[in-house]
Amino acid sequence: MTRRAVVQGVGHYLPERLVPNCEFETTLDTSDEWIRARTGIERRHFVADGQGTSDLAVHAAEAALRDADLSPEDVDAIVLATSTSDLTFPSTATMVQDRLGMTRGFAFDVQAVCAGFIYALANANALIVSGQANRVIVIGAESFSRIMDWTDRSTCVLFGDGAGAVLLEGREENGNSDDRGILSTDLNSDGRFRDILYVDGGVATGTIGHLRMQGKEVFRHAVEKLATTARTAVSKIGLKESDIDWIVPHQANLRIIKATAQRLGHSMEDVIVTVQDHGNTSAASIPLALSVGVADGRIQKGDLIVTEAIGGGLAWGAVVLRW
Ligand code: UT7
């Protein structure tokens, strides 16, 4: 028998304020047509004044707990992926722990920017497989609208806010690729590329800073690295790309999503796409897409899913799991 981290619940939360592309036409030299054609994005949600990443995360965690029919006291740990934590410290995860009313266990943040949820899943999987925790809430939550330069049309139209969460539970499975749960993970980073996607503020500057991106360069890395990490993760468990039922990619750009699916030999019918409705929500984009895919009935128990992401660092990776 092999211990696996199996998804028992999923949920998400989007802040109320919905911003269509046309809203940017009034303040920037841009257009709905350009944004749709170059990115696939049609709208995104933004947090309200006073609303923080922890607020979004709490709603998503509560939704995942409801879906799993569990209470906060049943949970051993919270692993929260974000690059837009409410404060420098404490972690957003401990704020969520408090707001959920969880007085035992442990909680911490993972910072791998858009790859954050992949890194968080891999960490939660290791906690469960090693017996450190049995039930872990894994959250991706972001308020990227807080770090936009609203005069930079090449970045501020791309991002959105939101949160998604899964509840993972340790289960004894057979130890083969038919098992439910996380079957393999593949994590990578290369700090030589830190300058092509970063925020120009932090403790060193005493400012929050704004997101800066060389879009074309990031695009080039994404198309090359995402298919490779997905293939690596699938091959680690002796499966082939054709065995995948669903690709659940990081939602940055529809053109990247299509190119990756094509490289993996899949049509867009096998891909969960939410970028049109959410924009790029960084670490939140994958759990948001999982939640949408489950809610609309596409993702079913037993389906083999590969999920992949790349972001600032550069950091990238993939997780293969059976739902
Ligand atoms: O989540 C982390 C990972 N992030 C990503 O994966 C993002 C990767 N990059 C991208 O998605 C794309 O590179 C972008 C969407 C950011 C940009 O698309 P692109 O096709 O690479 O456009 P570009 O940067 O080459 O710009 C083409 C033109 C430029 O004008 P010129 O120099 O050709 O006259 C830009 O100034 O489009 C212009 N442009 C815009 N025009 C209208 C850039 N942004 C805009 C805009 N509206 N919002």
Task: Put the structure in a nutshell.
This protein has helices spanning 32-39, 53-68, 92-100, 116-129, 153-156, 215-235, 254-263, 275-278, 285-295, and strands at residues 2-13, 17-20, 43-46, 77-81, 106-110, 135-143, 161-173, 181-189, 197-199, 211-213, 246-249, 304-311, 315-322. With 323 residues, it is α/β, with parallel strands linked by helices.
The rounded distance between the terminal residues' Cα atoms is: 18 Å
Give the strand line-up of the largest sheet. 1-7-6-4-5
Number of helices: 9
Number of strands: 13
What is the helix/strand order? Answer: EEHEHEHEHEHEEEEHEHHHEE
Bound molecules: oxa(dethia)-CoA
| Total of domains | 2
Q: CATH H-level name of the largest domain... which superfamily?
A: Thiolase/Chalcone synthase
Structural class by helix and strand composition: alpha/beta
Low-confidence spans: pLDDT under 50, at least 5 residues?
none
Question: CATH topology of the largest domain, anyone?
Answer: Peroxisomal Thiolase, Chain A, domain 1
| Percentage of β-strand residues | 25-35%
Corresponding CATH architecture of the largest domain: 3-Layer(aba) Sandwich
Tell me about the biggest sheet?
A: 5 strands, mixed
